[in-house]
Design a protein that fits this description.
Blueprint (H helix, E strand, L loop, with lengths): L6 E5 L7 E5 L12 E6 L2 E6 L14 H18 L9 E9 L9 E10 L3 E10 L2 E11 L10
Antiparallel strand pairs: 1-2, 2-3, 3-4, 4-6, 5-8, 6-7, 7-8
Length: about 150
């Protein structure tokens, strides 16, 4: 395994105030979601994707699987924005999601992620997926850090 980070994370030149969060190997799952942005807003990390037709179901709403995948990726992007992980070898332990409404293409989809608690090995978070004023989903999830891989582990 390479010591080079699997993700690129840095300021996005096209979106001032936002950081890009991109898996360097676009042939892996995260590539399906497209461009992912993240920024810190006080105690919350806002993670954004840009839904397209490929992300929809037969009702022309964002597919539930897309929403779930986005939430999972958002947990990691938020953890990186909070300075808790570099990512790559951390894993999702659990993810609970409640679908509230349908999302649409052509408008950014945001996950507002709140850090609840961090321990040596675990990160507990919760949040909402929204589009403007429209609530799409609520979620809670836990990430298990790899010892020695997280920024907080030193």
């Amino acid at each position: 395994m390479s010591d080079e980070p699997a993700f690129s994370f840095g300021e996005d030149p096209d979106h001032p105030g936002w950081h890009g969060w991109r898996l360097k190997d676009a042939t892996r799952y995260n590539g399906f979601l497209g461009k992912i942005l993240v920024r810190r807003e006080g105690t919350v990390a806002r993670v954004r994707m840009f839904p397209e037709r490929v992300h929809t179901n037969l009702q022309d709403a964002i597919h539930g699987g897309t929403t779930l995948g986005f939430i999972d990726v958002a947990l990691f992007a938020a953890s990186r924005m909070f300075g808790l992980i570099e990512a790559g070898t951390a894993v999702t332990l659990d993810l609970s999601t409640q679908f509230i409404g349908g999302g649409r293409i052509g408008e950014p989809l945001d996950a507002e992620v709140e850090l609840l608690r961090e321990t040596r090995r675990l990160i507990f978070m919760r949040g909402l997926v929204i589009q403007g004023e429209n609530k799409v989903a609520a979620f809670a999830g836990t990430i298990r850090k790899s010892v020695g891989k997280g920024l907080a582990d030193g």
